[in-house]
Amino acid sequence: MALRPVIAICGPTGVGKSTLAVQLALYLANTQSVAATAINADSMQVYAGLDIITNKIPVSEMCGVPHQLIGFKQPRDQYLTRQWLDDAIPAIDDAHQKHQIPILVGGTSYWMHHLIFPNRLKSDNSTTNEASLSSSQLSPEILQLLAEVPPTLRQLFDSLPQQPPSAAICPEEALSLQSLLTCLDPFAAATWHWRNTRSVLQALRFISFTGRQPSKIFSAQNNIDIAPRYRALFIWLNADPISLNLRLDNRVDEMLQQGLLGEVKQFKQSQSSPPSLTNGCSDDSKKLADYTCGIYQSIGESPIRVDQASTIHAASYAGYREFDQYLNASNSLQSKALFRKAVDAMKQSTRQYAAQQTSAIRNNLLPIINASNRSGRSNGTLLYMLDATNVDSTKWDVNVFQPARNITRDFLNGRVLPDPRSVSDLARTRLIINEKPIMFVFLVLIFHPEASRISIFHSISLAILNAEWGNGMDRPRYLFTGDDMSIRCQRSTIFYHLTSVMTSCVRRPTVRTN
């Protein structure tokens, strides 16, 4: 059965994804006699409110094009990847039944990734019925490992916290979670930093619910055939980082002129206060506002993470928390300082988020598209990068809309499409994929008997980064190559050995990976 078409417009914030989606939809309706509907794929634009901060497309700019899954969730609701898939798939199927073309548009490429390539999403424990899973029997391997852990860690496993503790406020509890995961699944533990308590707790809940080690489940999952759900065309809008950063800074200034402060005030009044969170601390004095739930995660400064069971949570549109502090300032002097700090923080966070969005496409979405296409299917997944560096009307039309229009038209009509690297100079330089062989690394380091664990760890890290590769070769940008799971296992092997060095003070560590 032929796969049905889907167009996906992705890229960092500020490159004009929504504008292109509307232009393509109008083009299809006016010249191809095909209706199109836009389906939001931005994890923060699903929430109602804060339209300026989250940069939602105004109704006036939709030009009559239907937009779905935008502004329909309450700000306090947690909305994860699985929930979005459950909403997006019926919306796409409905569009196909009406002979419409669904156009996915948004910056959360992780959502698009798992929509197009099914059966590769980790179990979403936060939306699973705990009662139905608590009866799952633990595997003999997990039972044996639990028998060997200290009593305090066993007690922790039996009563895992409902919310991840804050590593900054409760480091002991964060380290305890990491230690427990290291005992039960060292490869999974090596994947996440101990400060990433949300992912660590999620892995422990996975073990508790399924009775199995996450690393083994995901290793087996890697063998699943990478077959796309739809015949997909990805249009990746990218831009020169320097130009994009300047544009994003200017956009923050424009948001302030459009009424960002008034929006924050109104939202603050309507919500009273963000959800309270104890972060796993028993001391009530450590309670603080939880800026990691619902829409609040988009407007604080929590670092981006790729949560395989949910979505890319990030400070995607910083502003609310910083301006909330400014509005609560008690005197004018403090108020001015907080305002400047809030503006600078919002600009910096937005720039960082744009870079992280680009990295997510390059390091996660692009590899799985290439892996799927290597299977030789007739319905390959296509990705084209267009240069959105210059957004003035003339340059936009030549560099973005015209090539996107032509590619979309030929894609829908089954015509031969151009080489993705030929459509722009940016694509020619950035879509080159160097297939590097997996490298073997042998490190034998001798340390002074009085060397500290930190110095040992630091020395090994430097040795890995600065190893001499010989034969006049440049040091590779990436030490690990291969598919997602292969890279994860290689990286975990290195990190596991480094952790062992730190905890046991081994003086002559040998690290080998393949």
UniProtKB/TrEMBL annotation:
Keyword ATP-binding: yes
Keywords: ATP-binding, Nucleotide-binding, Transferase
InterPro entries per the UniProt record, alphabetical: Dimethylallyltransferase, IPT, P-loop_NTPase
Single annotated GO MF: tRNA dimethylallyltransferase activity
A GO biological process held by the record: tRNA modification
TM annotation in the entry: none
Domain of life of the native organism: Eukaryota
Keyword NADP among record annotations: no
Parts forming coiled coils: none
One GO cellular component term noted in the UniProt record for this chain: mitochondrion
Record PANTHER family: TRNA DIMETHYLALLYLTRANSFERASE
Family per similarity comment: Belongs to the IPP transferase family.
Protein name: tRNA dimethylallyltransferase
Species this protein is from: Piloderma croceum (strain F 1598)
